[in-house]
Amino acid sequence: MIHIVFNEADVDVLKKAIELDETLQGEVLLVRDDYAVGPLAGIYTTEGIEARKQWWRDVLAGGDYAAKVDEGLVDDNKLVAELKERLQNETAEIVWIWAAQNKHDVSGYYWLMSQLKDFQGRLFILYLNNLPFINEKGLIFYPEWLHVIPPKEFLKAKKLARPITLSEFEVDPDEWTKLQNEEGKGVRLLEGGKKLSQQGYDFYDADLRKYITGDWQKGSKIIHQFLNKNKQTTGDAYILWRLKTMLSTGEFDVQGEVKNMKEFEVKNKVAQGAETTNA
Q: Is 3 exposed, middle or buried (0-12, 13-18, 19+ CB in 10 A)?
């Protein structure tokens, strides 16, 4: 059995669950890229793959994760190639794809399953869509992310495993293709179920502005407030890029070098004449 997840934090909690149930024994693989943001055009072609890598280079340039693209840490295409080869050689092997109800997991699911139609019947989905679980305090909650589920609760979740149907292998890739053909839209949102919609790259900007005040704040504080308080969020690397893009317009006062999020401070510009007093 091969398990696939879409967040690094999910790996550890799933491995702990596997330790509790030998029927779950298997390797845990991680799809690392965040397909809820960025370009999708030609994403399975050499040109499209390189275009997406270049987009990430631009997004991460001069920031906390600047070297991540070229360090070889993210190579999902290699992972899929190796997975296909393994499934071809080991005909009894099956795959469990774990996804919670969030745009990151659902986007990753679409990207992955669209490449694996040849293995229909051997791919299973465990989509934790609006399902209640018990947290460490014994309270019912509805998790948006796998890693917030206690390991013992995963033993209940395994009952949800079902084969990805032939119909899904027909319909879901078509939905993913539609998203790939929408130009200039780089932010994907989950509307419910597995339904994704798309917005422009600046989708988060208006809400991000709300956390910039008249006082100096480090970029990291603004980003963390956004991530902790905003209804719609995404990864901190993307939000850092959007913050830098906003700062490049001269709309805000900035001090420090605009690189890593802890190296610069931001505040609203003082309105002209606001600091003067009447004689």
A: buried
Where on the phi/psi map is residue 138: left (φ > 0), alpha (ψ -120 to 50), or beta?
Answer: left
Residue listed under structure tokens 């679980």: 133
Q: What is the dihedral of CA 235, 114, 5, 137, to 10 degrees?
A: 80
pLDDT along the chain (279 residues), means of 10: 95 92 92 96 94 92 70 82 96 95 96 95 90 84 88 83 93 94 92 93 96 94 95 93 94 91 90 46
Helix or strand run (H / E) with residue 153:
helix 151-157
Identify the pLDDT of residue 120. 92
Q: Does domain 205-268 have CATH number 3.40.50?
A: no
- Compute the distance between CA of residue 109 and CA of residue 60 in angstroms, rounded to an integer: 24
Distance between CA 202 and CA 211 in Å, rounded? 16
Give SS3 for 27: strand
Residue 178's SS3 state is helix
Q: Give pLDDT, residue 70.
A: 64
* Spatial contact of 264 and 250, defined as CB atoms under 8 Å apart: no
Report the DSSP pairing between strands 2-5 and 95-100. Answer: parallel
CA–CA gap between residue 66 and residue 117 (Å, rounded): 35
Whole-number pLDDT of residue 193: 87
| Closest to 149 in 3D by CA, of 28, 4, 2, 16 | 16
User: How far, CA to CA in Å, does 41 sit from each of 32, 60, 181?
Assistant: 19, 20, 6
The whole-angstrom separation of Cα 272 and Cα 123 is 62
Burial of 40 (0-12, 13-18, 19+ CB in 10 A): buried
